[in-house]
Amino acid sequence: MEDEQGSGQGGALAEALAGWEGARIDAAHANPATGLVALAVYAGARRVLGVGVGPRVAGAGVLPRLPRLRAGASHPLVAAMRAHLVGRRVLAIEVRRDGITVVAGDPLPGEEDEGEGEGADDVVRAPEARPEPAAGGGPEPAAGGGPELAAGGGPELAPGARLELAPGRRGEARLLDAAGRLILRWPPQGSAPPAEIAYPADPLAAGAALVEASDEAAAGQEKAALARAVRARRAALERRAEAVRGDLGRLGSVARLQKTGQLLLAQGGRVPRGAAKAVLDDWETGGTIEVALDPARPPKAQAEAFFAKARRYQRGEAVMRARLAETERALAAVAALEADVAAAEARPEALEPLAQRARALGVSRAELAGVGAAGGGEAGAAAGAAGARGARAGRPAPRRPFHAFRSASGAAILVGRGAADNDALTTKHARPHDLWLHAKGVSGSHVVVPLPKGASCPADVLVDAATLAAHFSDARGEAVCEVSYVQRRHVRKPRGAAPGAVTYDREKVIAVRVEAERLSRLLATKEEG
Predict the structure, then answer these.
(1) For the segment 392-429, what is each residue's pLDDT rounded down to a tens digit?
(2) What are residue 19's DSSP bridge partners?
(3) Nearest Cα to 141, choosing from 130, 156, 153?
(4) Which of 18, 104, 136, 195 could form a disulfide bond with 88, CB atoms 3.0-4.6 angstroms apart?
(5) Given the DSSP bridges, would you call strands 412-416 and 36-42 parallel, antiparallel or unpaired?
(6) What is the pLDDT at residue 3?
(7) Is 291 helix (H, G, I), strand (E, B) or coil?
(8) In the structure, what pLDDT confidence band is assigned to residue 378 with cuts at 50, 70 and 90?
């Protein structure tokens, strides 16, 4: 292998890579958020070529190790490299002024077994008749029919794929097949690499700096993503606490509601039929109070609505106070976590325990995907790529039209956040085979239990979902509430209907007793989004 730059800086890298021809490609990794591409080969020992194509890291060198933070096998660049390079042998590596090219080859038919017995050549050359590499940066055939493979014997190789890497802040990686056809380009929109690349004089030192810079940049992004997620959780808990305090504040209206009901019950006989309001004598103060009425209902019948509302407030007090205490405890824990995140080092091993604490405190898993995920596990690596993408985007996740809760078994229960959100949950997010619930006969949130196709809802999940449907409705505070439930396929949104208004058939009804302990457990699992 000859470096086109001769004795220039590229010569040092070319010399470092010279003994890799014939080596098996064991692994291909990338961190697209930082731009580090790593190709590991086995040539007596594991060796790793690293090329930074931007935006965070740039350059090339021999890495002392694989990057700790990298994308998983589902990432397009990683998937393509593993499909077309891993398991093959290095046919040639060329260091050029405009980038580095790695050609991978497969054993020719009848040459799969390494060595041919006593008559085998110590050095086997690739055949002269193999296909020519495509123009545009690929290596030319070496004199004598091809580059030499590693000493010790090996199969003849035919080109299988070519990886072209252009280092730089705006560099790129291109994977081509044996005929020169483009398989994948990263970044997808392409780039404009420099006309001539400055290669390191010391590839080992450059490689060490490259992998450290990539891991440091990725970990910094993950720390920032974790800090944002924890801040968002704290803000959500503060809003929840304020809302519960508002609910508790309404307990002061219990006496007023009871008094209004008593006056309306006593004086309703002199209120004209169909009246939209009534002016009642306040016997305690000697003045009058004005009460809004439903013209379609008799005033005395409406007096019971005031008594019922007062009873709901009174019965809900214990649940509200328990929820406020739970929220305040969570707020204290999140505030402590926020301080720990700010003080933490930007290292995967430091961030992962903090990410686990955040998940336990209800931070959305989507916001935390990949934070602290390191090492070689595919699941962790894939999560790491997702986290890096979110950090790079720097945008909050889109608002969901529902809040997610968890049953005791971990099943998701989705609750609409408002009238228009109910429509979005039911018509856009719920699938035909999901279970749909609504408190019977009163206004309230739509509730959806996602289910596998053909599965029925477990009894405990049904009771949990019905409890939430009762709580997020005008029946909140009632000891027992009837809840309708059907498959989502039987729910329809009439044309022109008000937000949240639907019709449904094949209804089943469950009378759920709202247990304070069950409700508190469910509310504590709320996932903000």
Answers:
(1) 444 455 678 999 998 888 889 999 998 889 999 999 99
(2) none
(3) 130
(4) 104
(5) unpaired
(6) 38
(7) strand
(8) very low
C-alpha 59/C-alpha 218 separation (Å) is 17
d(CA 162, CA 105): 9
Question: How do residues 438-472 score in pLDDT, each as one tens digit?
Answer: 999 899 999 999 999 889 999 999 999 999 999 99
> What is the structure's pLDDT at 93?
92
The band of 194, judged by pLDDT with boundaries at 50, 70 and 90, is low
By the 10 Å C-beta count (0-12 exposed, 13-18 middle, 19+ buried), 276 is classed as: exposed
**CA 375 from centre of chain:** 19
Beta bridge partner(s), residue 173: 165, 186
Confidence at residue 130, expressed as pLDDT on a 0 to 100 scale? 35
Whether the Cβ atoms of residue 198 and residue 8 lie closer than 8 Å to each other: no
Judging by beta carbons within 10 Å of its beta carbon (0-12, 13-18, 19+), is residue 162 exposed, middle or buried? buried
Q: Give the pair of three-digit tokens for residue 194.
A: 């420099």
Q: Which residue has the tokens 């098996």?
A: 24
d(CA 80, CA 73): 9
Question: Tokens standing for 37?
Answer: 């591409």
Report the SS3 class of residue 46.
strand
pLDDT at 203: 93
Arithmetic mean of pLDDT, 288-300: 85
Which tokens belong to 338? 């926020």
Side-chain-facing half-sphere of 148: CA atoms under 13 Å: 11
Between the CA of residue 68 and those of 25, 296, 501, what are the distances in Å? Answer: 19, 69, 51
Does position 28 have pLDDT exceeding 90, yes or no?
yes
Name the residue among 514, 377, 490 with its Cα closest to residue 435: 490
In contact, 240 and 96? CB cutoff 8 Å: no
Residue type for position 219: A
User: How does DSSP classify residue 187?
Assistant: S
Whether omega before 155 lies within 30 degrees of 0, making that bond cis, reads no
Q: How many CA atoms lie within 13 A of 475 on its CB side?
A: 24
Tokens 């109910």 sit at which residue? 422
User: Rounded to an integer, what distance in angstroms lies between the CA atom of residue 514 and that of residue 455?
Assistant: 26
Look at the chain and count its residues.
529
Does 187 sit behind a cis peptide bond, omega within 30 degrees of 0 on the bond before it? yes
**Tens of pLDDT along 307-349?**
887 877 777 777 778 888 888 998 999 999 999 999 988 887 7
